[in-house]
């Protein structure tokens, strides 16, 4: 399976990096490929290192203005002209999506992929990996959107939630 991971390029605390590394090693050891933003910094590097170290394949989708931090040694690296093209390539290349901790870029990717799924433009599984309760607030907001009629489909049809990488992979492989 080609698993697209949306996550931060920031250097983060071990409370986030250790679970990310463990999840990445599961991806690689189970023979899956990582499709990711292509950066070789921060959490993106941790995930790529873990997948590659466990024997998995790396497919990076970078963007021109970040080409300077693109990972050397990825099995494949695509450089797009802009972020919209990057997201389109990530969607096209992935069989499933995992949203890990991140900032506004990760949140943008997460909401975009859920919006596309809501409109039936893809039917790929989406899992939000809620490491250390990072996305508790977002989960509550999405539940409120559902309860108050802002989602035309059940939340469970858009995204699943997992507290650890083993559960996230279990949801993807089901």
Q: Can you give me a brief rundown of this structure?
A:
Helices cover 45% and strands 18% of the residues.
Percent in strands: 15-25%
Q: Which architecture does the CATH hierarchy give at level 2?
A: 3-Layer(aba) Sandwich
Q: How many DSSP-defined strands? A: 7
Global Rg: 15 Å
Q: How many domains make up the coordinates?
A: 1
Q: For the record, what CATH class applies?
A: Alpha Beta
Overview of the structural elements:
- By secondary structure, the chain is an alpha/beta fold.
- It has one domain: Rossmann fold (3-Layer(aba) Sandwich).
- The chain has seven helices and seven strands.
- The protein has a seven-stranded parallel beta sheet with strand order 4-3-2-1-5-6-7, with helices on both faces.
- Strand 2, helix 2 (42-53) and strand 3 (57-63) form a beta-alpha-beta unit.
- Helix 1 (14-29) runs parallel beside helix 2 (42-53) and helix 1 (14-29) runs parallel beside helix 7.
- It is globular and about 45 Å long.
- It starts with a strand and ends with a helix.
SSE layout:
Layout: E1 2-6, H1 14-29, E2 33-36, H2 42-53, E3 57-63, E4 76-80, H3 83-93, E5 96-99, H4 104-118, E6 126-129, H5 136-147, H6 155-158, E7 160-162, H7 165-173
Parallel strand pairs: 1-2, 1-5, 2-3, 3-4, 5-6, 6-7
Helix pairs in contact: 1-2, 1-7
Task: Fill in the keyword field for this structure.
174 residues, alpha/beta, Rossmann fold, 7-stranded parallel beta sheet
């Amino acid at each position: 399976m080609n698993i697209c991971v949306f996550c931060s390029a920031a250097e983060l605390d071990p409370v986030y990096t250790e679970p990310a590394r463990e999840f990445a090693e599961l991806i690689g050891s189970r023979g899956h490929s990582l499709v990711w933003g292509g950066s070789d910094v921060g959490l993106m590097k941790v995930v790529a290192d873990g997948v590659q170290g466990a024997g998995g394949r790396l497919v990076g989708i970078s963007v021109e203005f970040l080409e300077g931090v693109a990972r050397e040694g990825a099995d494949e690296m695509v450089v797009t002209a802009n972020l919209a093209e990057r997201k389109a390539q990530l969607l096209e290349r992935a069989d499933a999506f995992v949203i890990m901790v991140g900032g506004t870029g990760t949140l943008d990717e997460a909401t975009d992929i859920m919006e596309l799924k809501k409109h039936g433009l893809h039917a790929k599984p989406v899992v939000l990996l809620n490491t250390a309760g990072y996305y508790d607030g977002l989960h509550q907001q999405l539940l409120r959107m559902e309860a108050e009629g802002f989602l035309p489909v059940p939340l469970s049809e858009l995204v699943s939630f997992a507290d650890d990488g083993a559960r996230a992979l279990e949801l993807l492989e089901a």
